[in-house]
Amino acid sequence: MLLIVAFLLFPALWTVYLGLTDYQLTGFAAANPQVVGLENYDRALSDDRFSNSLVLTLQFVLGSAVLGQAVLGFAIAWLMRNRVGALRRTVEALVLLAWILPSSVITFLWIALLDRDGGTLNALLNTPGTAWLLEYPMVSIIVFNIWKGAAFSMMLYAAALGNVPPSHLETARLAGAGTFQQLRDVVFPRIKGHVLTNLLLISLWTFNDFTPFLLTAGGPENRTEIMPVFIYRIALESGELGFGAAISVLMLLINLVIALVYMRLLRQRKDAST
Amino acid sequence: MAAITTDRLTKVYPGGVRALDEIDLTVEDGEFFALLGPSGCGKTTLLRTVAGLEESSGGSLHIGDVDVTRTPPGSRDVAMVFQDYALFPHMTVAENVAYPLRIKKVARAKRTEKAAATAGELGLSDYLERRPGQLSGGQQQRVALARAMACHPSVFLFDEPLSNLDARMRLEARTFLKRLQRELGVTTVFVTHDQAEALALADRIAVMESGRIRQLGTPSEVFRRPANTFVASFIGSTPMNLLDGVVRPRGIEVAGELLPTPPEPAGRLVDGEKVVYGIRPEYLVHSPTAVPGSLAGEVRVVENLGHAQLVTLEGPAGFVQLVVDEDTPVALGDRGFAVPRQDRALVYRDGELVTSGDPTGLAAAGASGTA
Amino acid sequence: MAAITTDRLTKVYPGGVRALDEIDLTVEDGEFFALLGPSGCGKTTLLRTVAGLEESSGGSLHIGDVDVTRTPPGSRDVAMVFQDYALFPHMTVAENVAYPLRIKKVARAKRTEKAAATAGELGLSDYLERRPGQLSGGQQQRVALARAMACHPSVFLFDEPLSNLDARMRLEARTFLKRLQRELGVTTVFVTHDQAEALALADRIAVMESGRIRQLGTPSEVFRRPANTFVASFIGSTPMNLLDGVVRPRGIEVAGELLPTPPEPAGRLVDGEKVVYGIRPEYLVHSPTAVPGSLAGEVRVVENLGHAQLVTLEGPAGFVQLVVDEDTPVALGDRGFAVPRQDRALVYRDGELVTSGDPTGLAAAGASGTA
Amino acid sequence: MTSHPDHAAVPSASDAAPVAVATTPSGPPPPDAEHRRREAQRAAGRAGARKAVAGIGFYTFVSLVLAFFSLPLLWLAVAPFDANPGLSASLPEFTLQNFRVLWDNPYAMRSLGNSVILAGGTGLLVVAFAALAAYALSRVRLPGRDMLLYVLLLLSSIVTGTAAMVPLFNLATELRLIDSQLGVILVLSGGLLPSAIFILKDFMDGTPRSYEESARVFGASPFQIMRDIVVPVVRPGLATIGVWSVAQVWGNFLIPFLLLRSPDQYPAAVVMYTFYTEGGQANLALISTFSLLYSVPVILMFLFVSSRYGFRFHGGIKR
Amino acid sequence: GSGGGSGPDTDSLVISANAIAGGKNEQEAKWIEEWVIPNFVEHKKEKDDVDVDVSFDASGVDDEQYKTKLALDLQGGSGPDIMNLDGIWIGEFAQAGYIKPLTEVVTQADFWEGWDQIPEAVQKLGSFENERYGIPAGTDGRVLFYNKDLFEQAGLDREWQPESWDELIEAAEALAGIDGVTPVQLNAGTAMGEATTMQGFLPLLAGAGEHIWDKGKWRGESDAVTDTLGLYETIFSDGLGDPLLQQEAQGRDKSFEQFAEGRIGILLEGDYFWRSVVHPELGIAPMEDRDEVVGYAKIPAIAPGKGIHGQDYASMSGGSARVVNPETDSPELAFELLTFMNSDEALKALLEGEARITARTDTNADVLADDPMLTFVADEVLPITAYRPGLAEYTRVSTLLQEATASVVSGNSAQDVAASYRDKLEGVVGGAGNITN
Ligand SMILES: Nc1ncnc2c1ncn2[C@@H]1O[C@H](COP(=O)(O)OP(=O)(O)OP(=O)(O)O)[C@@H](O)[C@H]1O
Ligand SMILES: Nc1ncnc2c1ncn2[C@@H]1O[C@H](COP(=O)(O)OP(=O)(O)OP(=O)(O)O)[C@@H](O)[C@H]1O
Ligand SMILES: [Mg+2]
Ligand SMILES: [Mg+2]
């Protein structure tokens, strides 16, 4: 617990405090930072770059986490649920590999894959000269992040599906329900809790994911400057730590809103099941 | 309504387990049919194959006159009640009951009405808006039944429908189920590992062991004349005493005591051959004093059966159990003597019942007898 | 070995549920004691409070002469077998059995030896190196027993030890458990909701309902003279028929039929008062023809009990169940008449048994009788 | 099968025939039997077709998934052996020279060792503390306990971000944890713990209490219960968390870079950055080779853990 | 280091640089470890008979990351005794109070004989507001590299020196005729980062006649700014440059690769390109025939005589300076080590016979003799070069410039972009009062 207080609570609160100052890493403001109150927040909220990055982040989270990872992870888990043996192990191992490899390594893999000139993808699709990362930057990092993070959802859903009694699925089948109806009527209501845990965690992680920076550096023209990249640039490249901290806090608040939405859904489920 | 006929129905699971081994079986139209057997004998597999939830590996299956061997489950016109009822926890009772109708695209108003009617027949009218979690086990079971009934299938399949109820409710539900089936007249197959349940409920019973049917007959046939020692030891609320014996000219010698040969196999035994002498605890009469042709022993355990007592004697023949009237005083450590009712004793040779040669006796195992 | 005494033992759960309501109870040294009751009546709570897993909210608890009300579970010298056995899935059978000894810091060699010995007594010698997941239910149960026995506690506590077994194994385990307890002579409290199990196994039974003890006595006391309609309907493999009646000068009128008043309450009934007439199905004699003083009805259900049949009649008195000999032919739709055995009929007023005023009759409920 | 109007009515009790009389199906089938038979055959045919389609669909999907997840890995398999790799995965001009160069590099190999220390240390710490905390949270009924978890989880998102580097750095300075691997381990653990606790708590919730209670009845202390029962039972969860936190640390650059001074202590994530030129250009030959070396330990760990302890979630908030 | 030596008897010093053995700037790292440290220790022993303990904190990361780490160290009152700082960081570090003018730290600061060997212009690298903070370690210059073979193919002379932007465009248009060749690579956009500003916008701006920061004010929407953006517009809208390449995160690497493969005609880069990119052996995109194929020319002014200070040509230079940490325990000793590292002997040892432009004229004269390109830079480019302002705001202004070029490349008119650049500039430099046209 001390560990958490020392290395989590304390720095977090300090960051919140920094957000109220004009602290910079260098320059005059580093020598004597001033408390500027909510000015940073004011600035952030009226900054196009902030709103741009917020919109991008939401797209990124929605596209890669909520839709991508969760859906792909679920699809794999669903199709593999009754399988055993080499096929399942291979699929799972590959998916998990993408999850555990260090991000600096996998970004190289993806840069090579999507490269304009000699990229594997262009060679495969016979689309020479397509600069995926430039022409479809958001799509690229979304697909990339799906690739990188689907494993967690897959594992979670595999476990969740294990909790769906086969008899429920079979009751639906006997009534003549197709796959979609089974998913809608039996599986989904049953694993709602897992779905929400999963969404909560992957949204949070994706929201804080800095890796796309290594792929696109926020570009082209800030079209992939998601929130963590924005903060990185503000805090590290421009050294504006006060401002960066304020944005971190804003990010936390947005995360909080997302978490509250999820928890609301969760509560509804709880009411419904008692 | 329809009869179910299987012809050399076989199911081999991917792992190589032969869960059904060329099962030939006919369940008559409107019959209440029990599948009984120890855990792992293939009861559930048979039921699921009938339902279409498992694909058979060989043989064929007819429901009514239609070959449904390759028909998907939703099109077989059967309803199944699972051991855990499989009620959808997020739906109300009414929604659960109406679910099959919803899948069959019955209009909302119509299906609500039909569901309410079916639930009403089972006394669930007051619970329509509750969720399964808010119901007792017995009520849940009735909801599962109502759901199965809702679309008027021609066959009901029950997999251990009572085993999740507590002892008291199980008894009530048993009687209820029997009455309901009688009224609906729908062909019903139900699986159980509780012989008492099977005896009480079924019109006919198939006793299974490792994927095969070991005996098929009415409850009293199966109870009185188990076709082999496996069935003998499986059927009966207290298992049959099966004692090693040797055929002698004037009876069967069990642990040095000569017991009279039962009338049926009398002419078919060869002097000196080894047989198993079977007698149910209910058909042993207790005597505190020595009687010729009885099994002696010391009272080891006395179990109260309510209006009777189950006494375990330990003697030269090993453990022998007998049922003693509640008013007869039996104390631990006493010596007791168990006198067989000769007309109810059975003799097994190589595990099979020795019969008078009357074909009905043998036919009970394997072929489908008359109910 | 030690007796267990509770004095106004009360347990209120944080939510406000009063799971135990001033329980006074003495379990004698060496006794095999059953706690019986419907789901949610507090059986498990009482057992857990004795084990020390729940802290009591009031009252006191002694094991032997020691007040253990506040003693932590590890120091009470009790062993508990849980309904799910709680075998540690990552340990082998041998390790599981040896675990209590390991906690008590018995040297490795010694505890291996002891564990092997205990497991051997229970016929587990061949499975010592297996893990619980590789055992059948019955074997698992024996491992749980062996683990409980390993450190020779003075009290055994069993929470529905048999309910996870299938019907056949349950019977075997029951006899085995009874014999084992007899040999060890350890004070044993076991929880069940199966009255047959309680009757068969226990020296004495406490029947509970919503946190209170409704009757306490030997199996035959509880079976023959249930102290109230709750116990009456709970005990017995087929529930007692409880029929509304009115006291008349020459008997008790039930649905227009005058039944003879049983001898015991005879002098204690007031003319015209409403009572409940109780008679077990086993004590009703079947007659195909009308007999005065009998309950008439149409045969609705016939359940095969093996060597007998349970017949449900529907008549003016509602449903009446009776047990009929296996040889008596009974067909659905027949008219039947049930004649009560007068000496076994009971009369309840306001739910309580009307007795002859003989203190032993009443004493059965509340005070601790002799084993 | 569609509904059959002719058996919709439930027969009343009075006309229920005695079941003992079996109706033998003889004579011509009833008029709708022919219809039913056709219907059933059609259904069987449809099912057969659907099954074939489903089978093709399944294998197509699986192939796509396999391709999707393995394609990017191609480069990692090829480039390290290429004398002059570009960003295209072309057929290499085979060489092992790149490995030689790295072998001679004073920091490359050592950095892998450092990574192992940091990742292993953090992994152990996170697993140990998360297990204790998750156990406590799962077993103790604390009001607002879920709330506490959510708050921690959210705060962890700040602390793992870039903006918290000043507080973390100054904290480490005050605690004299600069240039100490312990410092890196502690700081990283702080950020990873909430998620780890969150995931592990599900595992703990899924463990029957009766295990611990039976151990308690035998007199086991809380520590003994933890060591003998809880830890072995939730081992797949611990393994999952362990692998997860190792992977997180393995890829983390900023914290070790900021907190460590001497290059001897740098983990691989930091050393990987040294294979850029003064102008910021990547030396692809070395980077691809190092990437491979850098990935091997986590892959080995994953294989080891998954074969040894299983790698499964129990998952989900159970309420 | 600062914050406590290892003992009362031996002074200890720590050197820090963004260099590491086996990686980035390996040469410098090796030099510090294998030459500077042992020689300095020995030198002190011989001279004053004292033991000193010198160690080296190597790192090899992005400059921003290195800077962040130093800044964090310094704000906490610790940090190495001697550190390498990029010239443009001097101002912001000074303003933050992390570093102090040398004279405030060391009494002997002005009496180092080496100052005479460092040209005034180069000394600015280590200075801020006319105070010396450190000793420049080396500098560079920007030129136009071109591919002589391609020029020949396009019908141009192998030897080339454009005199105006028009001549540059003419050559580019001629190159445009060759298939698969991008005529000009002019860095633009944010993905290129500082390369856009330093190897793109700023040298051109100097050619158009202006500094980005002049007399305390930042340039807004001036003619020179518009003209410079106009050149970008010309190149990228007429297909003389590859707009996509500018946006790729690895765009600069690829431009190098492409140049080496003969797919780019003209490239504006620093001498780093010559030394470390296309170097036949050491380069990351090696060209075996570099000396024959790669030509170089000064960057022309927009028109002759229109560059800053009325020059015909322009360039920008960067480079780093070595600075003494004001918090050091032994400032005099640190300064002694600093001067030791910047002695002629030391610099020669650093270069190991390799050609590279140093801050010292005496050294340059010797080491550059064999390399015509670097001599060319030292002799012809350095005298006309300029430096970036070392202010905290510079990074953000640079980002704005990058965005502005990106905007032009993606098709907006130079005029509009210049206007919107000015608007944004206000927010970054603290109001219109700090901007001039
Ligand atoms: N999906 C499966 N894959 C492989 N083997 C199976 C599968 N399902 C069942 N089996 C095996 O088939 C045999 C029959 O199983 P089945 O479930 O039909 O038995 P059961 O009679 O219903 O037993 P229980 O009374 O325990 O429910 C068993 O040996 C079982 O292990
Ligand atoms: N931890 C708890 N918190 C609150 N209420 C509880 C708790 N455990 C049990 N109860 C309540 O206490 C009452 C008695 O429960 P207990 O488990 O003792 O019943 P039981 O007789 O063992 O039932 P069963 O036969 O279903 O096991 C029930 O109403 C139950 O809901
Ligand atoms: Mg089964
Ligand atoms: Mg209980």
TrEMBL record, chain A:
GO terms for cellular component: plasma membrane. The keyword Glycoprotein does not apply. The keyword Transmembrane helix applies. It is a multi-pass membrane protein. GO terms for biological process: transmembrane transport. Keywords: Cell membrane, Membrane, Transmembrane, Transmembrane helix, Transport. Gene3D superfamilies: MetI-like (1.10.3720.10). Residues 50-262 form the ABC transmembrane type-1 domain. InterPro entries: MetI-like, MetI-like_sf. It is found in: Cell membrane. SUPFAM superfamilies: MetI-like (SSF161098). The chain crosses the membrane at residues 55-79, 91-111, 131-147, 195-215, 241-263. Belongs to the binding-protein-dependent transport system permease family. This is Sugar ABC transporter permease. It comes from Streptomyces lonarensis.
UniProtKB/TrEMBL annotation, chains B, C:
It comes from Streptomyces lonarensis. PANTHER family: MALTODEXTRIN IMPORT ATP-BINDING PROTEIN MSMX, TREHALOSE IMPORT ATP-BINDING PROTEIN SUGC. Residues 4-235 form the ABC transporter domain. GO terms for molecular function: ABC-type transporter activity; ATP binding; ATP hydrolysis activity. PROSITE patterns: ABC_TRANSPORTER_1 (PS00211), ABC_TRANSPORTER_2 (PS50893). GO terms for cellular component: ATP-binding cassette (ABC) transporter complex, substrate-binding subunit-containing. InterPro entries: AAA+_ATPase, ABC_transporter-like_ATP-bd, ABC_transporter-like_CS, ABC_transpr_MalK/UgpC-like, Mo/tungstate-bd_C_term_dom, NA-bd_OB-fold, OB_MalK-like, P-loop_NTPase. This is ABC transporter ATP-binding protein. It comes from the Bacteria.
From TrEMBL, chain D:
It is a multi-pass membrane protein. It is found in: Cell membrane. Residues 112-305 form the ABC transmembrane type-1 domain. Gene3D superfamilies: MetI-like. InterPro entries: BP-dep_ABC_trans_perm (IPR050901), MetI-like (IPR000515), MetI-like_sf (IPR035906). Keywords: Cell membrane, Membrane, Transmembrane, Transmembrane helix, Transport. It comes from the Bacteria. This is Carbohydrate ABC transporter permease.
